[in-house]
Amino acid sequence: MGFQTFIENLTKELLNYLPRLASAVLVLFLSFALAVLVRKVARWLLRRADPEVQSFASKVPYIGVLVGGALLALSVSGLHVAALATLIGAIGLAVSLSLQDVARNFVAGLYLLMERPFRRGDRIVVRTFMGRVEGIDLRTTTLRTDDGQQVIVPNTIIMSEVVLKQLDEEPGT
């Protein structure tokens, strides 16, 4: 008799929970659709920026909308999200503290890609390294020296130190 009562109570609770579960699934679906829309709008707004900037800058709001939608779905389903939000905040703080240098390089890379103080093919001097810029990425800038060596410079060094941009000599000078 006890097992049958248990199954009946479980069935009744599940049937009572179904509307909240359906609402949570709907919120997840709508937040995913909104995240895709936000990413497309961000890419459209940044259509003239470098592909690296476009990709990074469109992922940030996309992930933010997804996380917000997941938290809202959990709340709609009846779960208490305050403890979960606190845990996510603590983990985010720990990760951000451990990745400070990477974050600085990303910010410096975004600045370099948007402001363009130098471009691919320009000759620059950073610290003791002189060479042509082969690439500017979100975290590093790559130089090719005259003797063929590849130098990978973190973008924070480029942002925090003097960089000499050499002007190409014009013919006849």
Summed up:
The chain has helices spanning 2-45, 51-76, 82-98, 100-115, 155-160; strands at 123-126, 129-136, 140-145, 150-154, 163-166. With 173 residues, it is of the alpha+beta class. The protein folds into two domains: 2-98, Helix Hairpins; 119-166, Roll (SH3 type barrels).
Q: How would you describe the overall organization of this protein?
A:
The chain is an alpha+beta fold and 173 residues long. It has 2 domains: 97 residues, Helix Hairpins (Orthogonal Bundle), CATH 1.10.287; 48 residues, Roll (SH3 type barrels). Helices cover 63% and strands 16% of the residues. The protein contains 5 helices and 5 strands. A 5-stranded antiparallel β-sheet has the order 4-3-2-1-5. A hairpin with a 2-residue loop joins β1 and β2. α1 packs antiparallel against α2. The longest helix has 44 residues. The radius of gyration is 26 Å and the shape is elongated. The mean pLDDT is 86.
Task: Sum up the structure in keywords.
2 domains; SH3 type barrels; alpha+beta; 63% helix; Helix Hairpins
Domains, number? 2
- DSSP helix fraction: 55-70%
What is the fold-level CATH name, i.e. the topology of the largest domain? Helix Hairpins
- CATH class of the largest domain, anyone? Mainly Alpha
Shape descriptor: elongated
H/I helix tally: 5
Instruction: Based on the coordinates given, report the CATH architecture of the largest domain.
Output: Orthogonal Bundle
What is the count of β-strands?
5
What structural class is derived from the secondary structure elements? Answer: alpha+beta
Please summarize the sheet with the most strands: 5 strands, antiparallel
Which band does the percent of strand residues land in? 15-25%
Radius of gyration: 26 Å
